[in-house]
Amino acid sequence: MQKIENCQEIQALALAQRRAGKSIALVPTMGFLHDGHLELMRQARKLADLVIVSIFVNPIQFGPNEDLDRYPRDLEGDLKKCEAVGVDLVFTPTPQSLYPDFFQTAVTVTEITKGLCGAGRPSHFQGVTTVVSKLFNLTLPDTAFFGEKDFQQLAVIRRMVTDLNFPIKIIGVPIVREKDGLAMSSRNAYLPGKERQEAAAIFAALSQAGSLYREGCRESEKLCQIVLEQLEEKIKSPFRVEYIKLCETLNLTEINGLVKQPAVLLIAVHLAGTRLIDNLQL
Length: 282
Ligand code: AMP
What we know:
This protein has 282 residues and is an alpha/beta fold. The protein has helices at residues 7-19, 35-47, 75-84, 95-98, 117-120, 124-139, 151-163, 193-198, 200-214, 220-234; strands at 2-4, 24-29, 50-55, 89-91, 143-147, 169-173, 239-248, 263-271, 274-281.
């Protein structure tokens, strides 16, 4: 497995591979890899000749009071994990190499970035779409893999790729969960023992709404309400709900009233100073 830090070097390598007729898959990550990330890599491995994983904690997608400085990192461990699942190349750029002096360009998806996570993190998605565009141009992938855990992010990337005609197929990968149902996330490492146990209530609450839906309930308010009730019942530590929303799967428009189309229930909760997100497609 190769490791490259330099932007020119990886772009030259990617170009040579494409000219030689090889297919490239990209898995963008911020590192501190867990089995959710590795699942993206395993899927990529099945599909492409060359699997590239990027590891980059992207400063421009963090807000001023967010966890950029304390975001967990373990490059050595990450490299071992990548190698074990058959990744060919890990790209580890520095912030200075991706955002040199005088950098002043941004990619913005205007509408589906406004609600949900975008409401509480106003510059977040612009940071994501800008860095992902750069990673696409540097690694020239045929396919790129993103997790459904970040459901809005996946929708934003799909929108961007369609709107800007990137010749790249975006593949969404289902959420990988811990045994107790908590969606795997690098940020779970922030949770102290008690809160970590209580965090399992998030998926349990979504699942309760899923059961209610399967029993025939189609009222969005009731489906969201049961999630809140379940959290209040099961989480004893202080927590704050940022949002619980039922949205159309395709464009993430909020559903008020009756659910008539494919829908997804999305949640963001703050627990022990940690922002946790999850979702369930109904
Ligand atoms: P991150 O390192 O958090 O930026 O995540 C990198 C990629 O891994 C994103 O496409 C995430 O959606 C995906 N991902 C993170 N956690 C999971 C998970 N539990 N299951 C599936 N994909 C995930």
